[in-house]
Amino acid sequence: MTESLAASVRGPRLASFDEHMARVRALSTREVIALSKVRTLGLTEVFDLLADTDFVVSDWHGSWTAAHQAVHEVCLAHGLEGLADVCGAAADVAASQGLARLFGSDVSVDVHMRLSEPWRRVMERHAGL
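Structure (tokenized):
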């Protein structure tokens, strides 16, 4: 049996998710604020988006939760816990990007772009600073 293209890149996608988690844990206060400003997907929207795929909740919810929690820990470390809406929005963006990295070629390009777009815009803006 020939391994599918998606299966052949599963290892690199897991490594990419791990790299993303390391990056999330090192977010600066400025990056947290910037991420919160571009939130487009929360958990409900991700459920809706992935409902059109063959992924079940158990395929992605643990990863979403891990990325989301990591941003809340960063917020706490930076003293931003009083800004719950900001931290929640930034966590949504980071969790969506984590799913984009995790799913990679297993999701259609439009799903991948919707999951990754806010993060890309923030990182481009940050690079220009």
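The chain has a mean pLDDT of 86. The helical segments are 5-8, 10-25, 29-37, 43-50, 57-77, 84-103, 109-127.
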